[in-house]
Batch of 3 targets.
Target 1
Amino acid sequence: MTSSTFPNISINTERLVLRPLDTDDVPPLTEMMNDEQVAAWTDIPQPFTEQAAHTWITEHAPAERAAGRGLDLAVTEFLTQRLVGVIRLTRTNWHIRSTELSYIVAPWARGEGYASEAAMATAQWLFGDQKLERVELRTAADNTAAQQVAQKIGCLSEGVLRNACIAHVRGDDGVWTDVRTDFIVWSLLPEDLEGSAEQLADTGQFTAFTDWS
């Protein structure tokens, strides 16, 4: 495959639909991005406005995909169509056939295993349909929830990038302050997926049915 951009696709799992962001997502995306946990562990500007969400959906995401750098997907519940998160692919290298995957889960959808299910389905699509050879994840040293997702989908921890991450802490006055910390680097290769899909299925958090179109 000689493609150097990701297609506009939809990925279905048993419980979720991953699809391109659209302008109907502006209100829930804005609410999700203003969540305390999202603000702490991402570089999303705070406060995050509806205008920022609209710009992301209509300008930034399409430009990143067109340039071949990445792909942003809304993660929605299959039954309710409610937005429950975002999967982001960034720093894509089509020569090496690698990309960096990250995930954000809305506060109203945490604890359901949605991040693992969405990340697993995306990885299966990347390795199967897009013929990528490496997916990389980076988690802040203290972000245990993100690390648990990486472990659940079968990632291997490769090492630590010291002082490479900026997290954020909100003081009593409500002002966010940058705090330097380490990144833990994880990788997922096609052969790593074989056991992890079965393992997630056993825990009831993933069904090894993935369909994309």
Note: The radius of gyration is 17 Å.
Target 2
Amino acid sequence: MMLAYLVPAVLVLMLLAASIRILPEYKRGVVFFLGRFQSVKGPGLFIVVPVIQKMQVVDLRVITMDVPEQDVISQDNVTVKVNAVLYFRVVDPEKAIIQVEQYISATSQLAQTTLRSVLGKHDLDEMLSERDKLNDDIQEIIDASAEGWGIKVANVEIKHVDLDDSMIRAIARQAEAERERRAKVIHAEGELQASQKLVEAANIMSENSAALQLRYLQTINDMSNNHASTIVVPLPIDIMEAFQQTKGTRPSSDE
């Protein structure tokens, strides 16, 4: 008699043990009853009857996905290799299981195609200098497409933009030419400012001949400070004119 009751009790205990499910706070279970969606359960302790019920577990934590390196042709016909990192999480477990076969693989493929299409619409300079804007554009497109799968894209970051050696040298030459252009512009602006100051100084000294003489003596003093064996001293035109006037007024020997 005891054996007749023991066997059903053991079977009930085994069925109960196989039916108990425990899910942590960051997971949810999508339960199907005879193949039809029934509910989303968890976290905590609940029962899933074997055979007639089936459960698929979904992780709600943020998933970090490395987008593989992609060959991209920019709008100015430059070939670059770009990779990125994608951060997303499941916000609707029901859609993530029912609407798409493998939501992680589907999100990865969507990120790769979106990365190529978005970067292909921009120049190389924009890829290198406007990464924040490109990240926002890629995130917005992926988020809108994956919304129907119950997925929320938290962030997209472009990690590397790899260039060929020839393109790196071309960019270096371009940067060098830009620096030379700036140096020439600065030098020209300095010459312009110096010429303006010289004109102002000349106008001031022309109003008083003593100022011109003082400037002349100062120039001679500066030249004498140099340890040179020969000093060439220029004579102002005013002095030459004074000598000519003196020569013209000198009395002749006949007088």
Note: The chain has three domains: 9-59, 62-163, 179-218.
Target 3
Amino acid sequence: MMVRKTLISLLFIVILFVFIKPINSTMISVFNIADGPAVVTKGHYGTSLIVEISFSDETLLDWLKTVKEPYPLLLLDAAWIERSPEHLKVIQERRLPTGLLGPEDSVDKPIDLAVVQKDINIYEKYFQETPLWFATRNHQYSQDLQNNLFQQQMNILSPSLIWKGEKTPKLQKGDFVFMSLHQNSNISFKELNTFLQQNKFMSIEENIFGYKVQTKKSP
């Protein structure tokens, strides 16, 4: 009788753990947002900032050290990754969310997938995992590229709107706001910090799923 009560109690605890465990502590290994190859341009629950990075200087390093949560998603250029060890150290120590910024693509003139794979390999070398998020510089995607990234369980992002440092645009629920930190960018970090303070951003995962997700890529 005692053994039966114990088993029932254990079963009840397991059920409670499964159904009452807080969603915001969920750990998932990999995921595809869609059931097939797709480009995701919007979430559902708020707005998210995605920062493309391909240029380094001390100002960027200081910003990476001080940017506050909720952190924007950083899409990193592969060549930038290789030449920016100090920046990478800060990103990894602070666990800033990252993805891969790929080269330009086109439906009419698809990119060589070997070039994209080389960039993926560089990301994996430095981060010890496959990027969960991906975007090309021109936000265009051939079908071959979409199929290839889907097979590797990488999710393709494209902007709802692009912020270039001008007056704050009118944001809508679900928006993915892209901005670039390239060599020819004119956005100052003062403008960027003001933009972050003036708007309530959330992580990509929270925007898409409605709750925070701890994501970890499986080896």
Note: The helical segments are 2-20, 58-66, 78-82, 85-94, 113-127, 143-151, 189-198, 204-209.
